[in-house]
Amino acid sequence: MNRREFLTRGAGTVAAAATLGEFAFAASPQEHSRPVRLGIAGLGNRGTHLLRLALGIPGVYVKAVCDLSEDNLKRASGIVQKAQGSEPALYAKAPNDYGAMVKRDDIDAVLIATPTKWHCPMAIEAMKAGKHVGSEVPAGFQLQELWDLVKTKEATGRRYMLLENYLYMRHIMTVWNMVRAGVLGEPYYAECGYLHDCRFMLFKKDGSLDWWGDWAANNFGSDYPTHAMGPVSKWMGLNEGDRMEYCTSMMTAPRVLHEYAVRKYGADSPQGKITWALGEFVSTQIRTVNGRVIRLDYDVNSPRPAVLPYMIQGTKGLYDSRHGVYIEHVSQGEKWEDLRKYREQYDHACWKRDAQKAEKAGHGGGDYFAVRDFVEMVRQDREPWIDVYDAASWSVLYWCSRESIANRSRTVDIPDFTDGRWKDQNWRKDSHRPA
């Protein structure tokens, strides 16, 4: 693992540089009675942003930080010192320092914000050391490591939360309440996607491949599925009365990355001669056990503005983020309605209470609530809303899509990480849900 790899995919420098005071969370009686002690792995832009958010919660103390970059550690140490009056322990040596950090007796949980290929190994090591885990997305890439993640969580009894911030965005939570109230009827079809030009992340300043570029050169498939699938899965109640059963995927042949490299470095450069594995557009069709269908689209290479489309169709109507809401016999003249029309009635309680604070925290407020719920998971020692079964089910779609594409879009079975528990729609009723 090199220094550059230890930086995480994600948030911009503006959010990471925000002042601590902007992220102050409202205190509750529990927050004063039970402190939460954290270790944080990965202090690039994303990890630093999450560090600031965590320190804004009353009763949270960061005891240790881990990163291979001395600059990242120095910055993180200064932030912690300013917030809590004491410096965290620093861990910077590969490959064993992370293992030493998670063995500390003064840490309750670990927040992991490293590149994806380290998410599963680090989460597993932390749980085996007796620590709860909050992991950045996705949970992992490979089928076996995701099974290992689930089995380790079950064997150790530790709590695991996937920090899928898109689930907490205001429009997503509003639609979740509408679906639960039956406004759209029974959902049976959904569309979602992550479409975002990320070519700027392919190369380091010296022209060598960054970890993102190395991935695109050697791997293919829908490798960043959770931002898209998280909201749709909760809207449809997947893993609670239904689950994804099988899928099939197609991918366009790579074009744009070659043109981009040639334009940037020249046709005769090493970069211009790279044979890229990841095509521009990957589309995956998913069918559930109960006969519902989901379309998942993925494109991080095309020249285009960023967009994250969400659509949920039910027997009474639909929500489409590109157009609005349509309810049969309610919407006038078969015209789209603005979702804000329904906000007063279906706005989620957490947004009604904390909108002003959340909107300052990044990712449409999602970061605020994701970090808050992770801390409350640890504090209350309760299963989270986005648990290890959701994490594995959504993340495994990379592996499934790759298997399908590699075999002429053949159907691939999606594993049941719940081992049949999904059949009882109330089996997770005691988990901590946004409030």
Structural account:
By secondary structure, the chain is an alpha/beta fold. The protein folds into two domains: 4-165, NAD(P)-binding Rossmann-like Domain (Rossmann fold, 3-Layer(aba) Sandwich), CATH 3.40.50.720; 167-348 and 387-423, Dihydrodipicolinate Reductase, domain 2. The chain is 35% helix and 17% strand. The chain is built from 16 helices and 14 strands. The chain has helices at residues 13-16, 29-33, 45-55, 70-84, 97-102, 119-128, 143-156, 170-180, 211-218, 226-236, 256-265, 343-346, 349-358, 366-380, 388-395, 397-406, and strands at residues 36-41, 60-66, 89-91, 109-112, 132-135, 160-162, 187-195, 244-251, 282-288, 293-299, 310-314, 317-320, 324-327, 412-413. An eight-stranded mixed beta sheet has the order 13-12-11-7-10-9-8-14. A six-stranded parallel beta sheet has the order 3-2-1-4-5-6, with helices on both faces. Helix 3 packs parallel to helix 4. The longest helix is centred in the first third of the chain and has 15 residues, at 70-84. It is globular, with a radius of gyration of 21 Å. The two termini are 39 Å apart. The relative contact order is 0.15. Residues 1-23 have low confidence and may be disordered.
